[in-house]
């Protein structure tokens, strides 16, 4: 597997607010898409080792959609979590509070169908949506 891809965002929120906006399904559906022509109509999240995460990703015009699914391997409430995707790639997300900001760091294994730069840009776009959404709460 190639080197992990890293993305991050500094959120103007305390760690609890940042955590809740990232992990609660009612919030996930508001920010979990890379471009305005996509949306996330549903999400389920069982945050415990062995629990599953499922987010439905769809083009707004109905032309394409898929379920993004993962199984948690580690959960440290309010601090971070790791999960494994169906193709055995891993994702690690960490929340570090510093003053009135929370730094969200995401490291993930790239897939081998798209250029790594494209993957990084797509995941960063989603994280940027999360930042804007969380800061608007």
Question: What is the typical, i.e. mean, pLDDT?
Answer: 96
User: N-to-C terminal Cα separation, in Å?
Assistant: 38 Å
**CATH homologous superfamily heading of the domain at 5-35 and 76-136:** START domain
The general outline is: globular
What's the CATH architecture of the domain at 5-35 and 76-136?
2-Layer Sandwich
- Strand ordering within the main sheet: 1-7-6-5-4-3-2
Rg calc: 14 Å
The biggest beta sheet reads: 7 strands, antiparallel
Query: H/E element string?
Result: EHHEEEEEEH
How helix-rich are the residues, as a percent range?
25-40%
CATH topology of the domain at 5-35 and 76-136: Alpha-D-Glucose-1,6-Bisphosphate, Chain A, domain 4
Q: Unreliable runs, pLDDT <50, ≥5 residues?
A: none
Structural class: alpha+beta
What oligomeric state do the depicted chains represent?
single chain
What's the CATH class of the domain at 5-35 and 76-136, please?
A: Alpha Beta
Strand content: 35-45%
What are its keywords?
137 residues; alpha+beta; Alpha-D-Glucose-1,6-Bisphosphate, Chain A, domain 4; seven-stranded antiparallel beta sheet; 3 helices; 7 strands; globular; ASHA1/2-like_C
What is this entry, summarized?
It holds the Pfam family AHSA1. Belongs to the AHA1 family. With 137 residues, this protein is α+β, with helices and mostly antiparallel strands.
What does the secondary structure layout of this molecule look like, with pairings?
Blueprint: E1 5-11, H1 15-23, H2 25-31, E2 38-45, E3 52-59, E4 65-76, E5 80-85, E6 90-98, E7 101-108, H3 116-136
Helix pairs in contact: 1-2
């Amino acid at each position: 597997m190639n080197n992990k891809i890293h993305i991050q965002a500094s959120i103007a929120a305390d760690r609890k607010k940042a955590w809740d906006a990232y992990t609660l399904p009612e919030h996930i559906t508001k920010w979990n898409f890379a471009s305005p022509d996509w949306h996330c109509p549903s999400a389920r999240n069982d945050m415990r080792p062995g629990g599953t995460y499922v987010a439905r990703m769809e083009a707004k015009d109905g032309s394409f959609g898929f379920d993004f699914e993962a199984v948690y391997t580690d959960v440290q409430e309010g601090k971070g979590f790791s999960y494994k995707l169906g193709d055995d790639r891993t994702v690690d997300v960490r929340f570090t509070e510093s003053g009135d900001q929370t730094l969200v760091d995401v490291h993930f294994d790239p897939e081998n169908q798209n250029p790594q730069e494209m993957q990084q840009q797509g995941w960063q776009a989603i994280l940027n949506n999360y930042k804007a959404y969380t800061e608007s709460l």
